[in-house]
Amino acid sequence: MEWYNLTIDGCEVRVPKGTTVLEACRMNDIQIPTLCQDKELTPSGACRLCVVEIEGMRNLPPSCVTQVAQGMVVQTQNTKVRAARKVILELLVANHPLDCMTCQKMGNCSLAEYAYEYGATGEIYKGEKRDLPIDSGNPFILRDPNKCISCGKCIKACTEIQGRSILDFSFRGFDTQVGPAFNLPYNESDCVFCGSCVSVCPVGALTEKKMVGMGRSWEVSKVQTTCPFCGTGCNFDLNVKDGKVIGVTSNPDSPVNGKALCVKGRFGMDMIYSPTRLTTPLIRKDGVLVPAEWDEAIALVAAKFGQIKKESGPNAIAALSSAHCTNEENYLMQKFMRAVIGTNNVDHCART
Amino acid sequence: MAENKRILVCAGTGCASSGAHKLIDALKVELKKQGLEETVSIVGTGCQGFCEKGPTLVIEPEDILYTSVTPEDVAEIVATDIMKGERVERLLLVDQVTQKPVSTLSEIRFFAKQHRIVLKNCGVIDPQKIEEYTARDGYAGLQKVLKEMSPEEVLEEVKKSGLRGRGGAGFPTGLKWGFCRQTPSDKKYIICNADEGDPGAFMDRSVLEGDPHSVIEGMLIGAYAMGVDEGYVYCRAEYPLAIKHLEIAIRQAEEAGYLGNNILNSGFNFKLRVFAGAGAFVCGEETALMASIEGKRGMPRVRPPFPAVSGLWGKPTNINNVETWSNIPHILRNGAEWYAQFGTEKSKGTKIFALTGKVNNTGLVEVPMGTTLREIIFDIGDGIQNGKAFKAVQIGGPSGGCLPESMLDLEVDYDTLTKAGAMVGSGGLVIMDETTCMVDIARFFLNFSTKESCGKCTPCREGTKRMYEILDRITKGKGKAEDLDTLENLALTIKATSLCGLGQFAPSPILATLKYFRHEFEAHIFDHKCPAHACSALLSYTIDAEKCKGCGMCAKNCPATCITGEKKKPYVIKEEDCIKCGTCIEKCKFDAITRA
Amino acid sequence: MTNSINEIPNSKVMFVIGCNATEAHPIIGTKMMQALANGAKLIVADPRSIELAECSDLWMRLRPGTDIALINGIMNIILANGWEDRAFIEERTEDFEKLRENLQKYTPDVVSKITGVPVEQLEEAARIYATAESAQIFYTLGITEHVYGTDNVMSLANLALLTGNLGKECSGVNPLRGQNNVQGACDMGALPEVYPGYQKVANAEAQAKFEAAWGVPLDPTPGFMIPDMFEAAHSKDLRALYVLGEDPVMTDADANHVRKGLKALDFLVVQDIFLSETAKLADVVFPGASFAEKTGTFSNTERRVQMVNKAIEPIGNAKADWQILCELATAMGYPFEYQSPEEIMQEVAKLTPQYAGITHARLGTQGLQWPVPNAEHPGTKFLHEGNFNRGKGLFVAIDNQIPDELPDEMYPFLLSTGRKLSHYNVFTQHSEALETYAPEELAEVNPLDAKRLGFEEGERIKVTSRRGEVETKIRITPRVPLGLIYMTFHYTETPTNVLTNGAFDKVTKTYEYKVCGVQLSKLS
To answer: Between residues 262 and 281 of chain A, which touch chain C (CB distance below 8 Å)?
Structure first.
């Protein structure tokens, strides 16, 4: 591998050829603000927040799409660079609703984070603001186009991760919008509600509808786990607040799926709290299933299995194990049948 | 007398819209009536360049130019000029300096000072007939190249000519071709950028309309030099005549064996097709243009990779604009040295400018690089309309800048203009006189950039809008003291951080006007005055009681009914209701109303 | 899968047969879409115009159940053109001559007549697949849910062996496993003939190993497979059934027969998180914990063993399934004294060669793909590099067969069943969000059939088979060919499996869910 030496903010660093200036900075713990960059997506260089100054280059190049060169001298924090970033943030904030107190994204909003760091209030460029209708006609995704900063990540996620291209830019200039073709609401488009767009949105333009009002990001703990539906084995984070799962968010480090999920994995976890959940053992008494204590239920089953085994032999008992349960549980089930009951009568829907 | 005469009627888009086709029909009828249809031929040509005075026609062989000709003039032209060899004086052009009519092209200063290479055939041949092009050495460059030269030699010749891209940035064409040639690939493309979008610029359209084969020949030579077998002409759909002529030309070239497989038995293949763009300004940017051809939304992408490495469909691609391509056949036909004799040290050849605004002669002007602005405006353009004073010239469209009178002796080339804060751009020259407000002009161009921004990058999408808002409030007298600093800071940031040329140069009209006309901005902000009396919100209209005869015409015509008075007594304008439309001034026969 | 999911975007050629990945395995579907964007070629064989068919380079609308003929026809063309991989056949396979001989009768014309696929398409499929630099086959239940599902699978294996598209990056035969842990349940020996790690119960060595580990004598006779269980219940040979997290009344074919079998039992125990249709028949119901309420591991279709991490306490009085099993075993006098699922996995690793190197700590956030033979082994991305489990790949000559029940005069429509994107089996109806989005069955009917029968879009109709009848709303769409109705089995209100045929594959005893005859009629 070919290595390049360059100077970033006065420090000598060494990175492989083909690295972008942004990556070189991040490898060396130099923080650069970005809004449109995502490691799963091809770079677009659109938000221009990651601009830096590079000796010998005219203008301020965006670090996310500028590749390092031998001997490059980069400034990432000087007055000129920070002033340019501040102007860009001021421009974005000037056209952004400032209803942060009720915004679902508060605490996890990249725009708010950088506006805070750079002191951008939006006052200086105060002028016309968008006033577009909110798209809430589906059960999964809430789309507030007024909060959109046109970073284009949702478009790329839809195209590059999901392979669908439901989203794109429409109109021009200040009137630019992002959405499905003909500006249709999500539920009238061909959207399949995978929610990849939500997973990459850096602001509150795309949020999980069911999570609105359920918890602030700092109140939520995230637990990585594996999806219980199909055999793909996607991972995601269960968002837990006060001992309750309030929703699902992508975990970018998921080995199989990265940020991608499908409608079931991302939006179907409210089944945990379905009113149809069983919450107590049931025993049939006089033909009707009635609630019972655990001890009673376990004792009853143990006795009944014991009796049948004694009367008719172990092969009069069988078990259907579960393709939904864990490996450990399946192991125990077959061990239970083989070692405790004494039969090989154990199967599961292995082939369906 | 009438033997072998040819009547060249301009049928370019400009003259066509002012009635050239009716004129041609009338000429045909009249010639037939006079029994001259065999001896006098009528040619519908491409743009003759003198759009201001259209429809125009030229009678050969004497090269007599008649302007603003209508079908009603036809009988007289045929009877007087064609049949008797005398001039129809009233249809001749009047020289604004001598105030005398001039008849032949060589006497007309608009033409006399030009040097036409690219426009050589425009307005002279019938663009729908390949034989008229070949009769004037058309495809001779291609024949020479295919028979006598290797691709490398062609490339060398173009490099030696010093030709630079005519699309605006002025990148050396030979060098650009070299990059594309060097990139190894199974497939390469060349593209002709005919997405001419600058307000007021129409040289590319005129070349395509009037001499489409020159573009095709240029592309063929380029394709040969770069090892390319497929090309596109990306032409905006708003140019239907250009597209039509181009498609006819492609068909004829295919039939004649200049396009297709094994061209002129050389083994060289080239396929060319026209792609009609939907007219987004940003599609003139090469990466957006390619996205558009690929069927995507026309938005620029970051470079590198440059098109020469990864362009259309990811293949190495070379893009040049119409004017660049149509220079190529002349260079190859006459040699690089011949071409390099024109122009300045670093900018060779000629450049076509679209001269518009408050100048007497508007139209297309082709001059050697290095010609001064003064020559273009005052000699070729014949000075400012209505004897008003020159104020500024806007060069390079919405990406260019306004230069004041002190810069008129600038010798126009890529480098001098950039240094002065403007740019050659596509070659639009908009002339402004003393009645033009420079803040308003900056606002006009910003409005254009705001509307045409593709919306991809933040500074251009959001910033141009805010610059426009600031300029708009200044022209309305609501400017704030800090606005100029805000504007300048914003303009510089947009310039430094935007993704493509559109954004990077969108602030140019502001930066140049701030540089040369800052006092006008200050007058708006601090004195609430528009020095050019152009910004309506800052004007006040008053009736001079001494001069007013009390005729009541002003009150009768005032759309806001804010003028009151009794007949034969001085009238009064109620200022708070006045909408500053200026109708009263136009209607007053006694010069009694003043605007200040 | 012999290959890995993240190899898919780099595929050169994908041959997708009987597999609706964008709906049934959506993330694998997205990887296929990414492959297409990267220039991969896609061949789809499916009676329905599924989304992948619409994006494909070649879509073969074969008649349901004619897969073997299709594959044989493609192989015939490959041999006729000399596109087979001679070196691979020579080095790594056996019985090639038997295959060749059998293929002779599957000429393009014959195959085209059987399958309804034009000869040109067969030739194109053969060319694309066989001449590719690398090619992957993907199949799902469209292949296996037939009475000759095993033979279907072996045909695909023949095709891969013939062209050497196996045992390499982006080259292999990839069944997409249906449920989240169906791979793991097999790995763990929840099958009547094998212990964990596919060690045969009939194998004395394996028996000895597990007897030593578990400290009890074990039975070397394989047990009942699912269809056997219901038959045995009917005949009273089976008296008690313990069902863990399954709902056979909804998901098994010929549901009425299943229901009767369950009713014939003396004792039915169901352990689930919802009161399923099966649980409603139980004598005792144990409330299990959902995946969010317990720790453990799932093994996905690419053999990746991944952590399930407990996020919340079980709802109400529910308990994790492993805890319930421990209590029950202990109550029956065989103490299961595991303190945690991690401890169970330690025992699994000791007894299961493929899992030998797996511990919860090692799985971390990225999981491991088995085989993981020891604690240092990094896992296995693709299988069969260099050699097969049995040594050489065996060609098996297979002939075309016909489904157990085809449409006839009484039941003139062919019913095919499967999943749809917005739901997963009989689970997701308990999600309010998904239920609002896709609240009811929408059986797919071809527009010409609908017109002939006078059906309107969205009309509720009656579907009847020899075994039962259901009502369903319909969606009129050319996605399905003439004469075919497509239904899912997600809804209790439309229990489609009342209709399906209980005939099954001779080896795996998988039901023929994909083909049976039904009659459609207007309500009232």
So the answer is: 262-264, 267-274, 276-281
- The DSSP-derived string for C208-274 is HHHHHHHTS----S----HHHHHHHHHTTS--EEEEES--HHHHSSSHHHHHHHHHH-SEEEEEESB
Tell whether A288 lies on the interface with C, counting CB pairs under 8 A: no
Number of cross-chain residue pairs from A and B with Cβ atoms under 8 Å apart: 111
Q: Which CATH class is domain A215-275?
A: mainly beta
Q: Is B422 on the interface with A (CB under 8 A)?
A: no
Q: In terms of residue numbers, what domain contains B193?
A: 130-340
Question: CATH number of C182-369: 3.30.450.40, 3.40.50.1980, 3.30.930.10, 3.40.50.740?
Answer: 3.40.50.740
Tokens 């129809």, residue? B88
Q: What are phi and psi of C471, to 5 degrees?
A: -105, 145
Interface test with A, best of C434, C491, C508 (most A CBs within 10 A): C434
Considering the domain C5-176 in this protein, what is its CATH number? 3.40.228.10
Average pLDDT of the residues in C117-136: 95
B189-232 pLDDT tens trace = 999 999 998 888 889 999 999 999 999 999 999 999 999 999 99
**Set of chain B residues whose Cβ sits within 8 Å of the Cβ of A87:** 459, 463, 489-490, 493, 497
Which residues in chain C are contacts of A338 at CB distance < 8 A?
195, 201, 210, 214, 218-219
Average pLDDT for B262-285: 93
Residue B223, judged by CB atoms within 10 A of its CB (0-12, 13-18, 19+), counts as buried
C470 vs C504, which has greater pLDDT? C470
Residue B238 burial class via C-beta count within 10 angstroms: exposed 0-12, middle 13-18, buried 19 and up: middle
Residue B134: per-residue pLDDT: 95
| Confidence category of residue B3, pLDDT binned at 50, 70, 90 | low
In a domain, B122, yes or no: no
Does pLDDT of B186 surpass 70?
Answer: yes
Identify the chains in contact with B, defined as 3+ C-beta pairs within 8 A.
A
Residues A3-77, CATH architecture: Roll (3.10)
pLDDT tier for residue B40 given thresholds of 50, 70 and 90: very high
Residue type, B46: G
Say if residues A197 and A203 touch (Cβ distance below 8 Å): no
Checking B29-37 for CB contacts under 8 A at 24+ apart, the result is: B29/B74, B30/B74, B30/B75, B30/B78, B31/B78, B31/B82, B34/B78, B34/B79, B34/B82, B34/B83, B36/B2, B36/B78, B36/B82, B36/B83
Q: Which of residues 195-254 of A touch C (CB under 8 A)?
A: 209-210, 223-235, 238, 240, 243-245, 251, 253
ipTM (interface predicted TM): 0.91
Tell me which of A192, A307, A335 to substitute to probe the interface with C (most C C-beta atoms closer than 10 Å): A335
The CA distances from residue B409 to B4, B96, B354, B417, B524, in Å, are: 44, 21, 19, 12, 29
Q: Is the pLDDT of residue C493 over 90?
A: no
What is residue C168's DSSP assignment? B
- pLDDT tens digits for B317-361? 999 999 999 999 999 999 999 999 999 999 999 999 999 999 988
Question: What is the nearest CA distance from C413 to chain A, expressed in angstroms?
Answer: 23
B462 touches chain A (CB under 8 A): yes
The reply to whether residue C176 touches residue A301, judged by beta carbons under 8 angstroms, is no
- The answer as to whether B125 is a domain residue is no
> Does C302 sit within 8 Å of A233, measured CB to CB?
yes
C-alpha distance from A323 to closest chain C C-alpha (Å): 4
Q: Does A296 reach chain C within 8 Å, measured CB to CB? A: no
Q: Which of C145, C183, C315 sits opposite A352 (nearest CB)?
A: C145
Per-residue tokens: C197: 């790690």
